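Mods, move this if it's the wrong board.
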Amino acid sequence: MSAKPPVIAVTSGEPAGIGPELCVMLARERLAARLVVLADEALLAERAAAIGVHVALRRYAPGGSALAGTVEVEHLPLGAPSRAGRADRANSRYVLSLIDRAVAGCLAGEFDAMVTAPVQKSTINEAGIAFTGHTEYLAGRAGAKHVVMMLVGGGLRVALATTHLPLSAVPRAITRDSLLATLRVLDADLRRRFRIVRPRILVAGLNPHSGEAGYLGSEEADAIAPAIAAAAAEGIAAAGPIPADTLFVPERLKGADCVLAMYHDQGLPVLKYASFGKGVNVTLGLPFVRASVDHGTALDLAGSGKADPGSLAEAVKLAIELASSS
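Not the wrong board. Structure tokens:
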């Protein structure tokens, strides 16, 4: 572990959402890292004033050091003036430029990890830019072959076999090979990033009762069970497929380090019930550490001072921990 505190890039996300104000609230936290907020500096100053947060903004200079009570900023200019609560597609390129800068800095070794505030996917798509989410975008920018979305919180780790897909597209996306690749990434990053010697992974079935011996669906027999068997042959401690309605009972979870759910709304409602406002989204399979909040842009709260910075603070803390263990 380096004697110097890690340098964490924090993207401020959708400028009309709560991301910018959450970023300035980070100055209140005692964090063992140097945080560099990527944002339009005037936007941060404006939002800090609107919510009554008194903070000094300081321009980022590589090689510098953190100062308590300040927010270090790398200024990237907005594409158009931004008003709290009103997303504007003219700022879509700006939002992506924040992510691109963080990725470039991580790949170059300038940043030890990146943490992302939420973006408004619909607004980016309205600008004519195909964008399904941070997870997929980061994989493309980093050239990662296979990434896995995992949320951490409430004593749980829940990973997803598929991410931002319509429910009707999920069965086609679940294949033996894709699940095996996911289990490999999970096992590798739980060992490397989370320092778990032999991760134990519980794998959910897709259908009710895990298909009821084929009467309620064949994906378990055709794809999920073969992937688990192949993973086990490689020394990965994966078990299942387990019916999702009994997978999350405490007695079963006691013996697990992670749950692999088949789709977004199969696993995440449980985790968010247990940890909403404190949960963290982690992207596994990238060549760097990336963590994020467990919530959206909350346009209705932007500029009100009512947004809870808990999830962003937890994301930064986890990024510091994971960066320090890499």
